UniProtKB/TrEMBL annotation:
<dbReference type="Pfam" id="PF00386">
    <property type="entry name" value="C1q"/>
</dbReference>
<protein>
    <recommendedName>
        <fullName>C1q domain-containing protein</fullName>
    </recommendedName>
</protein>
<keyword id="KW-0732">Signal</keyword>
<dbReference type="InterPro" id="IPR008983">
    <property type="entry name" value="Tumour_necrosis_fac-like_dom"/>
</dbReference>
<dbReference type="GO" id="GO:0098978">
    <property type="term" value="C:glutamatergic synapse"/>
</dbReference>
<dbReference type="InterPro" id="IPR050822">
    <property type="entry name" value="Cerebellin_Synaptic_Org"/>
</dbReference>
<keyword id="KW-0964">Secreted</keyword>
<dbReference type="InterPro" id="IPR001073">
    <property type="entry name" value="C1q_dom"/>
</dbReference>
<dbReference type="GO" id="GO:0043083">
    <property type="term" value="C:synaptic cleft"/>
</dbReference>
<dbReference type="GO" id="GO:0099558">
    <property type="term" value="P:maintenance of synapse structure"/>
</dbReference>
<feature type="domain" description="C1q">
    <location>
        <begin position="1"/>
        <end position="117"/>
    </location>
</feature>
Length: 117
């Protein structure tokens, strides 16, 4: 599978209890109303471009992470947040800027319910 500059594709799902993560679209859908924790860690490999990755909630950016050092062969960017979500709300990663060029195999994304409302 390929991804455009706007979409991300996570090639391997390690844990998907409750099947809230849509593996085809690499989107997390809230199974119920509550407070959710999201964390991501992205890696760019042999890439001199600055990257910006945002965590999106229903199409709106919530947090971003940047990696822009031109003098290293590998660089990582991470961030995390708590979000109040309604049942069916969507969370996903969006590559806003740059190119990960193979870095997705070293990158992670996780989301889980912290507190039901």
């Amino acid at each position: 599978k390929e991804c455009s500059v706007y979409d991300t594709f996570l090639p391997q799902v390690l844990v998907n209890v409750g099947r809230s993560f849509d593996e085809e679209r690499s989107n997390f859908f809230a199974p119920r109303k509550g407070i959710y924790s999201f964390n991501f860690h992205v890696v760019k490999v042999y890439n001199r471009q600055t990257i910006q990755v945002s965590l999106m909630h229903n199409g709106w950016p919530v947090i971003s992470a940047f990696a822009g050092d031109q003098d290293v062969t590998r660089e990582a960017a991470s961030n995390g947040v708590l979000i109040q979500m309604e049942k069916g709300d969507r969370a996903y990663l969006k590559l806003e800027r740059g190119n990960l060029m193979g870095g997705w195999k070293y990158s992670t994304f996780s989301g889980f319910l912290v507190f039901p409302l």
